[in-house]
Specification:
6 helices; alpha/beta; globular; His_Pase_superF_clade-1 (chains A, B); six-stranded mixed β-sheet; Rossmann fold; homodimer
Chain lengths: 233, 233
């Protein structure tokens, strides 16, 4: 890996170097599918929850976490997304289920199909670079969670199916590590960089996947819809 | 560059590969300086402006652009940053000057020192990967702007000086391309990826640089403080 290390350090004179990583336009293996529409993928982190809880069921939303979720739902409605949302996915963990239900209610559109998914439960997607001392799951955890979260990425994040005629909005309510990994993978950035990103509770992260497979991020961790005294990490 | 191309495609099975790019903890050449404080760097994109203008002076803020700037200033005040801001920098382009002045006024703290900078004027930091057809500056533009914007990065984005005792907040009002390039460089992501990020007018992007040189992003293009009908790209 010696050459690559040199290339990394070279970013210091980025203005004059070769692109380090070519964009793979067939990253989702759908380049020949003739997609017509754009998929907007709205990734929501759950609200603040009871950190003292042991086990998932006790890790329910705090009162502040519920308020964050409600306000996030109101923001999505204000953005006009209630009519455009074609799919609504929730992680099966308690805090994501509660957050998702509160958001869904605010959208006031019972026709949006809902899916619960175990694939997007919180986990350890890949060893972060640089590592941190305070968070150090064992190799087995990365081994199991990594493949599962990558499976989730391939399942949920891709360009439109060819039969999709109109632009769509998918809302996915899940977890910080999952969202950060999805963002790195979707933008074709090194996945190990995921821990350099941080996301507030109830924040909105918006990916846009064009018919030609190009991906851009419209915002990461947008929490401006929450009053300053309701912000938590 | 063959090996690297293979590595890029390998992200498809990210869970089991070596880190692609080691974090350079001496990226700002200040690793031995014994910094004590954290620098919060708030990057603000200017408001909507008169696209029909020829030349910088005619590219002034629209009425909506002014409102965006005022609301962004109010948000920074709400976040408690008016008291914490130690430095306020504006690009010398008309739209950034106007935006910066409107924000500064909202902070209601005349003791914050102000700096105007030519280094952070809009430009073409580095050829984007993937390229786009609709934006294609000539090589000379990249050659000139690239080194200048990299100079700006090294000047403004770094860990605290050793004499800095308390955490600080720097507000930098500038431009989309400059902010996107700064984010890629600060997070040690490939700089050519900058065009995969997008930022709304008046949006807030927050970098945090710790004493040990670690950098994280708290939000990218946060515009939730703007009503939905005031959002523009």
């Amino acid at each position: 890996y010696r050459w690559f290390l040199i290339r990394c350090l070279d970013t210091a004179s980025a203005a004059s170097v070769e692109p380090s990583c070519k964009w793979d336009s067939d990253w989702d293996k759908r380049a020949n599918d003739k997609a017509k529409a754009t998929r907007n993928i709205i990734l929501i982190r759950h609200g603040q929850y009871n950190l003292a809880g042991s086990g998932d069921k006790e890790r329910y939303l705090t009162e502040l976490g519920k308020e964050q979720a409600i306000r996030t739902g109101i923001r999505l409605k204000e953005l006009g997304l209630a009519k455009l949302t074609t799919h609504f996915v929730k992680s099966t963990m308690t805090r994501a289920q509660q957050t998702g239900d509160l958001i869904y209610k605010q959208l006031e559109n019972d026709e949006i199909p809902v899916e619960d998914s175990d694939l997007i439960r919180e986990g350890a997607p890949v060893e972060p670079e640089p590592p941190i001392q305070s968070w150090n799951p064992d190799p087995k955890t990365f081994f199991l969670d990594g493949a599962r979260i990558e499976t989730a990425f391939r399942h949920f994040i891709h360009r439109a199916n060819p039969e999709q005629e109109f632009d769509s909005t998918e809302v996915i309510v899940c977890h910080g590590n999952v969202i950060r990994y999805f963002v790195c993978r979707a933008l074709q950035l090194p996945p190990e960089a995921w821990l350099r990103l941080s996301l507030r509770h109830g924040s909105i992260t918006w990916l846009s996947v064009r018919p030609n497979g190009r991906v851009s991020i419209k915002c990461l961790g947008d929490s401006g819809h929450l009053p300053a005294d309701k912000l938590t990490f």
